[in-house]
């Protein structure tokens, strides 16, 4: 049991803080947290590759800042990480051959030729010895210089043959497409010509004479006139029968 005031200590019973150097409460350092006020220290630490936005964190859920070490770069294309299910290799990716990154929390790798101690980085090595090296790379591959990293080489697929095949393939598609378009245009022209001839012919055909209603009314008068003249014609204009005009002298 305590017998003196000197036995009393500050426990810093608030979440997110712990006892500091001067026996005063101080916030948990960045990358750590304290959930329970009964704890004396900020014993909670963020998963490797993550940290907190600042000091005084109270839960692991505050560990949402990606914190990649050197030789790796931050993958900025991914969403905010979940601390309870964090994939370190996905968020902190290694540099490819011919590139390295000596500083932490960077988003791009630097060419090995620009790094002073490049020999200390596994990625700053060549896979083959140069364009004249025809034995190191396996069949179907050739030794080429890494783009963007002068002086470093790797084996790449020799696609010179497949490239020409692809070229022929695309040319064939282009020729077929042009042929189809030409045929379609010719067919359209032929259809238009046939249609135009029919329309033109119908316009040139003489219109059928219409029978006027007055023709039927004039027929009796015409018949009397023809009787006087000596003949009567039928409806088609042929002589139907002779007409004898009576002699007034008898």
From TrEMBL:
Residues 22-63 form the Tyrosine-protein kinase ephrin type A/B receptor-like domain. It comes from the Eukaryota. Keywords: Membrane, Transmembrane, Transmembrane helix. Gene3D superfamilies: Tumor Necrosis Factor Receptor, subunit A, domain 2. InterPro entries: Tyr-kin_ephrin_A/B_rcpt-like. The chain crosses the membrane at residues 170-195. This is Tyrosine-protein kinase ephrin type A/B receptor-like domain-containing protein. It comes from Pristionchus mayeri.
